[in-house]
Amino acid sequence: MEKPAVTYELLHIDKSTGARRGIVHTPHGDIQTPVFMPVGTQATVKSMTPEELKEIGAQIILSNTYHLYLRPGHEIVKQAGGLHKFMNWNRPILTDCGGFQVFSLSDLRTISEDGVEFRSHLDGSKHFFSPEKVMEIEEALGADIIMSFDECVKYPETYEYTKNSMERTTRWAKRCKVAHKNTDKQALFGIIQGGFYEDLREKSAKDLIELDFPGYAIGGISVGEPKEEFLKMLYYTTPLMPENKPRYLMGVGTPDYLLEAAIAGIDMCDCVLPTRIARNGTAMTWNGKVVVRNATYEKDWGPIDSECDCYACKNYTRAYIRHLIKANEILGVRLLSIHNIYFLTKLMERVRIEIEHDNLENFKNDFYKKYYHTKD
After folding, report:
1. What is the DSSP string of 199-214?
2. Annotated active-site residue in 14, 150, 267, 270
3. One of 14, 96, 150, 305 is an active-site residue; which one?
4. Catalytic residue at 305?
5. Which residues are CB-contacts of 368 (< 8 A; sequence separation ≥ 6)?
6. Res 106: pLDDT
7. pTM attached to this predicted model
């Protein structure tokens, strides 16, 4: 029997929380988990070079199937030798399937059993994504981990619509598995859907596990729902996932959600958050968020974070970075992006250490006191 392109190795379970410490083995190297994965939507993490990401310690990055299909086109990327060669990144890559764009571009698409017709957000041209087409695109892009085509349902949504969507997502997953040929070099993950209905989540997980994907993701949460709803569904769904395969929670990047994901037993998370808030002049620090563009930092000669040793913190002041942001200079965005990705990378590095020492619960409580300024 052919060995899967991606496998999971469990190293330790934290006695204080049940969080897991492991390794995801891929064709382009091992990923120490739990891990935060920076997003490079257009085959680039905005404003950063692959060399800077490696120096920071990024282990894996994401790229976007929908956007790369529109430009430069998956055939161009294939001719370049795949995403790894195209963008000069020799570590693991994950590509999403376009399912989030079914959610985020809801005004520009029409869903049917066959797939989704999009009107391009660039020029209005029409494009059809079927499960088979998505597999064609993702195989051409050549990422280590690829995602099956799904629909990410908005919040709130009716039970009937969510049920029909979830069942169609399962049918699409079956079609993706049949269409996916490059199994020795790429691992196709299934995406558990079902909105905020526990019975639908359970049915989705059961049906997808029967298809025996090499990894599974939770989709359709962190889509604007209250935090208590997010936590309820996270902690309900994660135990339904196989223990011997990677578990991926899609689209979370705030420190509290990353910590909760790890405690729930998730291995991988991703989000555009660190670079997006950098473009708005905001930094994450060990003592909470700092809006560097605010006037209070005009004459602040200290680093972004006194507890950080990233390139930006070692070399530049808050006052200087504020000046760059106010002047719309790209260097300001670059420095804040470097810092924010470094911060989340170091946070997850620390999470892995605390899991190994069965101390994640204490670490979480101490971190929250500093970051969110809670008293207990």
Report:
1. HHHHHHHHHHHHTT-S
2. 270
3. 96
4. no
5. 256, 374
6. 81
7. 0.97
